[in-house]
Inverse folding.
């Protein structure tokens, strides 16, 4: 029985050794879509100038979230700090990154277990009856004692309580697999930090869209007030005989056009708030009101070289570097499959006809496993590891250039938006002066409603250009913060107007 148990234990240890002797290729980090911006030139006819039209692109998983405990309810007043906190808690991007990090940590534990002792215990009761004749023992083979030799023995029973032990104190494949898994875990941790930056950018960009839309609603409301004042003036002058009915009709058409525009802007504002709600864990039917407003300030444009140096310390760069080191260790693990390994195994326990009359039994084995031939499996694993390593090296090299591209693109947006805002602000001032002069001329009869309507259209377009330019500037600022990896610290002051 002891021999049988030893064989079973040795077979189990050998199977475990074979399962752990293969090199494990590191799983690459998923290439998730990153929130970004899209810019196009708005042609003449839709605006008073050829301005930059900027929009935010937020793709899954950042575009959605799980519902917070207070997802529904009454009107919610939001600050940018509240929105960012909710986004970090409930956005799907963060939840997915946390799950990937937990999976990477689990892989580290699995790789570590290949080098740590494995101890199992078992208690069994055995009942046997052996047919000796079937084993070749019968009376004809034992003539001298055949008449006394039984054809079968038993039944007999015995108890067994065992503790089995196994460990690989020297296994370079398992050691390199553990190092590779640890680097993958570090990459997942850095990736989670980078996802945090992406969530902050996504929430801030959508929050900024709502701020810009609220500004458009305020501008449209002001335009309705201008149009109503002109219409009331036309009605009074018509009653006094100073204006014809066509002037009243033109003023009314202009007023109703402004009212239609205001309704469209109000509808768009409601939809933008729904988008914000879905990003930060609120129900789509939860009404929100933002505390901050677009602040009219022009920031200084930082030096491009300083932005490059900051960006190279981003978390996703470190994650890419850690993934490269993981692939290097995996390649070493594949090569180490050609090296011998040592495994310890054994058992200790008690056997006997009863638990009160048993005897101690034990076994200890030291196995030196020397690879001789495995049908080219090691060469196949090395080639796969080489391919993965080349891919990671190329990805790391491309990542650095991608960072430079992203930083320079955000810097150009900031520089362009800063200059554009100055022009838009001056243009808005001139258009407002022209509108006020046209209204004064209309009151004294020196101008008709056509001139006033044209001046109001020009002012409305200039006001829209100003809001778009201010929105583009703030979006460029948070894009620069994201590009250099400082969004978590820089975004709240930018949207609060604390940092120009």
């Amino acid at each position: 029985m002891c021999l049988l148990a030893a064989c079973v234990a040795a077979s189990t240890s050998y199977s475990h050794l074979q399962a752990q002797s293969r090199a494990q290729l590191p799983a690459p980090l998923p290439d998730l879509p990153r929130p970004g911006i899209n810019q196009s030139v708005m042609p003449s006819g839709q605006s008073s100038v050829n301005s930059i039209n900027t929009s935010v692109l937020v793709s899954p998983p950042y575009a959605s979230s799980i519902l917070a405990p207070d997802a529904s309810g009454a009107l919610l007043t939001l600050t940018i700090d509240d929105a960012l906190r909710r986004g970090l808690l409930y956005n799907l991007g963060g939840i997915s990154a946390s799950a990937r990090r937990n999976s990477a940590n689990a892989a580290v534990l699995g790789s570590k277990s290949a080098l740590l002792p494995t101890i199992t215990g078992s208690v069994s009761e055995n009942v046997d009856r052996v047919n000796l004749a079937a084993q070749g023992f019968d009376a004809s083979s034992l003539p001298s004692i055949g008449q006394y030799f039984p054809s079968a023995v038993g039944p007999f029973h015995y108890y067994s309580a065992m503790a089995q032990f196994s460990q690989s104190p020297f296994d370079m494949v398992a050691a390199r697999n553990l190092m590779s898994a640890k680097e993958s875990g570090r990459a997942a941790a850095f990736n989670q930090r980078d996802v945090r930056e992406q969530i902050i950018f996504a929430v801030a960009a959508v929050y900024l869209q709502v701020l810009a839309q609220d500004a458009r609603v305020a501008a449209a409301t002001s335009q309705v007030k201008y149009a109503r004042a002109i219409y009331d003036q036309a009605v009074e002058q018509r009653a006094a005989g100073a204006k014809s009915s066509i002037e009243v009709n033109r003023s009314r058409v202009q007023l109703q056009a402004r009212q239609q525009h205001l309704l469209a802007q109000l509808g768009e504002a409601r939809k933008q708030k729904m988008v914000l709600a879905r990003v930060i864990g609120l129900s789509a039917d939860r009404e929100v009101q933002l505390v901050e407003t677009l602040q009219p300030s022009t920031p200084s444009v930082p030096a491009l070289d300083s932005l490059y140096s900051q960006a190279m310390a981003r978390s996703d760069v470190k994650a890419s570097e850690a993934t490269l080191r993981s692939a290097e260790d995996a390649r070493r693990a594949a090569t180490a499959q050609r090296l011998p390994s040592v495994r310890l195994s054994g058992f200790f326990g008690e056997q006997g006809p009863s638990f009160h009359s048993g005897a101690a039994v034990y076994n200890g084995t030291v196995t030196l496993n020397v690879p001789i031939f495995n049908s080219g499996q090691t060469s196949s694993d090395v080639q796969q590891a080489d391919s993965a390593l080349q891919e990671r090296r190329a990805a790391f090299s491309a990542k650095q250039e991608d960072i430079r591209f992203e930083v320079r693109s955000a810097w150009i947006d900031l520089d362009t938006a800063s200059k554009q805002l100055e022009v838009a602000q001056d243009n808005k001032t001139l258009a407002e002066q022209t509108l006020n002069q046209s209204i004064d001329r209309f009151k004294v009869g020196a101008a008709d409603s056509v001139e006033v309507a044209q001046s109001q259209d020009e002012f409305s377009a200039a006001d829209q250009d100003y809001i778009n330019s201010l929105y583009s500037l703030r979006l460029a600022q948070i894009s620069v913060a994201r590009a250099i990896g400082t969004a978590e610290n820089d975004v709240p002051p930018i949207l609060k107007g604390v940092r120009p």
Summary: DSSP finds ten helices and eight strands in the chain. The two ends are 83 Å apart (CA to CA). The beta strands are 36-41, 52-57, 76-78, 118-131, 152-170, 288-290, 341-352, 359-369. Residues 1-20, 41-50 have pLDDT under 50 and may be disordered.
